[in-house]
Amino acid sequence: MFPHIRWRIAISYFILVAIVMGGLAAYLSRPDCIGDARCVRQAVSTAAILLLFGTAVVAIPVAARTTRPVRQLSQIIQRIATGEWEARVLPQTRDEMGELILAFNNMMDQLRQQHLALLEENSQFNTVLNYMIDGVLITDSEGSIRLINPAATKLFDLTEESALSRSFAEVVRHHQLIDLWQQCQKEGREVTAAAEIGRELFLQAIITPFEEGWAKGYLVILQDLTTVRHLQTVRRDFISNVSHELRTPLASLRVIIETLQDSAYDDPETAVRFLDRAASEIDVLTQMVAELLELSRIESGQVPLRLQATAVADLLLKPLDRLKPQAERAQIDLILDLPAALPKVQADPERIHQIVTNLLHNAIKFTPDEGEITLQAHRDEAENAVVISVHDTGIGIPKEDVGRIFERFYKSDRARTRGRGGTGLGLAISRHIVQAHNGRIWVKSKEQKGSSFYFTLPIATPDDR
Ligand SMILES: Nc1ncnc2c1ncn2[C@@H]1O[C@H](COP(=O)(O)OP(=O)(O)OP(=O)(O)O)[C@@H](O)[C@H]1O
Ligand SMILES: [Mg+2]
User: Fold this and answer.
1) For the domain bounded by 228-299, which CATH number is listed?
2) pLDDT exceeds cutoff 90 at 353
3) 68 CA from centroid of ligand 2 (Å)
4) What's the topology of domain 132-224?
């Protein structure tokens, strides 16, 4: 009825005072009271008591009504503080308290919106940081880690909790990176350097000093360039290998021709022998160029696969028969271990013959006489594939070469020095063919014990023909 508390209180008092004063005036104007000092005293003190009592009666409900919303408000503030952002008080009066509650609700709505905007911004920032391939660290001006993203924790094999608040030096534990950070701190400008961490990790580090309001520190970005560097090495090795492989038969050809020019020309028998050697060197060159061409065609997807549901035996028996004589010559046992109930696989038989031939040929080349080679196949339920494998009891592959033998032209030193023929392209071609079949190829080997090569081919579905 009365919109303002102060009016409500003032009017209540006015009515109270008016009633008491009115009563007092009426009492005092009674004829028996006029001129009677005792009566006047009695009337005034009764009025004072009534006024006091009336004040209490009026004040208590007014105070209770006024403070109820304040109590509700303080409860709501406590709930909001515990994270209940949606909690609100509904204004029940239209007085100052009602206005205060409306203003409070309004302020909370705005704060809520700002809070949501901040949360979204924060989650976008976190998404970028979490999914970044590059490692990101932020240190304060003293070098304590303030932020580290998952890529960086992975690089240094740490957890986020263990890295935070530790020093940059303790976290990265690498003198090149520590020196770079100190250089950035000293010079106050962005610095960049490449760092090799252990034998396997090659990083490019960029450290930038920043000053954002009160915050001052250093942003460290670590890019993993291991793959790029590996590719550079492969490319460099490829060029040097291909030159080397071409130079050897070319040098032999030159010697043959010079010898023919000098003397052998006059002796027809020697000339024929030398010409035969020249022809075989040309065969080597032709074979190499053909393999290179084939590899580059397979790599660029220009060789279409003629995929068909094929029995695994049909993929293994032909190469096995072809290489039997070679194995027999070296007195090597060639064993076929083929389970009877193998499903058909989806494969291009011609291409798979090529792989199996190369694997068997390698096994024969690198197995001393009287060794044993087993050609196996088994079903892999988990991969829904058939695994074909060639195991030998040969010289094995040095650990440092195992990861590289599928590269073009890569041959282990032992294979080179023993002069075992081959251009080093067989496994590179095999890998590409397997990958084109959606399979994978890998090797396990132990020096002086032997090697096992494996590759998978997907099982044909009833729809495959
Ligand atoms: N069964 C094996 N035992 C030991 N080393 C092997 C075996 N198979 C392959 N290697 C190593 O891997 C290298 C590469 O093999 P790959 O088949 O690619 O080439 P290559 O046999 O030398 O030549 P190409 O197959 O082109 O005639 C070999 O030179 C050898 O060092
Ligand atoms: Mg080979």
Assistant:
1) 1.10.287.130
2) yes
3) 91
4) Beta-Lactamase (3.30.450)
